[in-house]
Amino acid sequence: MSSAALFIALAAFGLGTGAAAGLLGVGGGILMVPFLTLAVGLSQHAAEATSLVVVLPTAIVASVALRRRGVGDLGLALRFGLVGALGGAAGALLALALPAATLRVVFAAFLTVVGLRLVHDGVRA
Amino acid sequence: MVARDDAMTDRALHVSTPLPEPDVRRPLDLQLIAIGVAGGILSGLLGVGGGVVMVPLLVLWAGYRQRDAHAMSLGAIVPISVAGILTFGIAGRVHWLDAVALALGAVVGARLGAGLLVRIDERVLKILFGCFLVAAALAMAVRA
Who among A63, A117, A125 is closest to B78 (CB)? Predict the structure, then answer.
């Protein structure tokens, strides 16, 4: 693919990822990292780093739009996120000590249980 | 306190809440701090944003409505991603051209997604998010 075509393809994928992120309340890394490794061919670390740089403006733009509409409480979210950021450093250290494959399996199980519970709640509500 | 009682009454009566949204303000308590730390740790651990863990905890544990939980998660992701960018010292690893291309699309998409989040039915949002989590779990299991 030419670099111009790649740029356009990435912007288009970013548009979809950003829309999903703004609606689902996530950063979008879970969508971008696999795309950057599988489709663009970046290494896992490069994909994670690049993805984080995109997550930041995505979350800022969505947060500002939602604050304007009075959804959530941005000031409070920024404060508990700041504490969480310190947890992130602890997580990075833990990641070096624990086997990543095991963590992924445990986390995948957590997501499945919680996801099914939310679908169940939504259908029954 | 009053605002949270209203939200619970709405849920109990199955009333779809009209705009404007009820007040969701509450103090920064240990529960929110724990949720932020869980999101941050997971973000550092697995290289994904903390949103996939913070949103379920905000809904099922802290009692936020789905819509507000999504907004809170996005706000918390801002400092968490800044810390991620700083702690990993990733300047050398970022593919800037790819990041700029993705971000140009993503900021436009984020406005569209946030606009939809404001209007979407609370139940539909819950089901959509649940399906997204299960899909994310499958993708993660495959990678593991």
Answer: A63
